[in-house]
Amino acid sequence: MASKDLVAALAAPFAPEQVHWRIGATASGGSRGLALAYVDARDVMDRLDQVMRPENWQTTITFGSEGRVSCTLSLRFGEEWIDKTDVSGESDIEGVKGGASGAFKRAAVHFGVGRYLYHTESPWVEVLNKRIAQHEIPKLVAFLENGVWDGARGETPPERSSRADPPSPSSQPNRPAASPRRPPSDEGYPTGDKISDAQRKSLYAENFAALKKLGMGKEEVDNLEMKEKFAPINYALERINRKRVEQVRENEVDEVKSHIERWAEVHSQQAAASDDRNSPMDEDGDPGWVEPF
Question: Residues near 240 by Cβ (< 8 Å), separated by ≥ 6?
Fold first, then answer.
């Protein structure tokens, strides 16, 4: 099999029943949460065995300070070995073992294994005892199969492929339409005066204020993954066609803040709507492997 075919096979989606889900950001006092998709490390091993064959891949695990675990995944394409490395911390559940599995899966992402899960939509689901309610699982499996979310509230996944973006306004009655993205400039680069350090800090303060509006405390925010922790400001940056806060100009600061406020508004409204239409929840089950990508 040619190298490009191997790469395509490595990156192929997993069967829906192989994908697990865990809770990310929560709202409504923890009764609602974003469902984040991930796969078991053993399924990643099976994928490598099936595509590369067992003799054509190997790992090197290194344990660093402060619980950091590094994994170098090496794949052989023809006569050449290609190495990719990533790191993880010790997991809360399985300590060093969980950290090693996490680093291994993240290294595999560099070869495309499971990378599509980073772009998989994250529906809001009911949460029971800090886990996804069991009756939501079949809906999530069906969602992976056909891309349509059949939530208990009639909710749809976010409009864009980001785990913590606001839901599609078209699915939320009586809500303002999303602000359009600004078309990029002819040169493709920001224009105007750069923001000061004080303005940059104020934007990050707005980001965390938006998370606070969802009822999150400091400890809960600290435990979020980086993508979830900065979801409000990343949403705002995309609205103005910027990739980093450092690219924002002084005349754009107020616009960024308004987009962050809207992110919080939409999420808060969705959480409130969920509370107004409560329904019984089934007993929650064990989602299995807890260390996500």
Answer: 181, 182, 248, 252, 255, 256, 259
**180 burial type by CB count under 10 A (0-12 exposed, 13-18 middle, 19+ buried):** exposed
Contact 10, 111 (CB under 8 A): yes
Structure tokens at 77: 């394409």
268, 270, 273, 277 alpha-carbon torsion, rounded to 10°: -130
Distance CA 114, CA 104 (A): 12
Q: According to the model, what pLDDT value does residue 47 have?
A: 96
Taking only the tens place, the pLDDT of each residue in 78-133 is 999 999 999 887 654 455 777 888 889 999 999 999 998 888 878 889 998 888 99
Q: What is the pLDDT of residue 284?
A: 31
* Calpha distance 164→228 (Å, rounded): 6
Q: What is the Cα–Cα distance from 120 to 147, expressed in whole angstroms?
A: 9
User: When comparing pLDDT for 179 and 26, which is higher?
Assistant: 26
What is the rounded CA–CA span in Å between residue 255 and residue 274?
A: 29
Domains of the chain in sequence order: 3-146 (3.30.390), 169-177+192-276 (no CATH)
Query: Is 0.90 surpassed by the pTM of this model?
Result: no
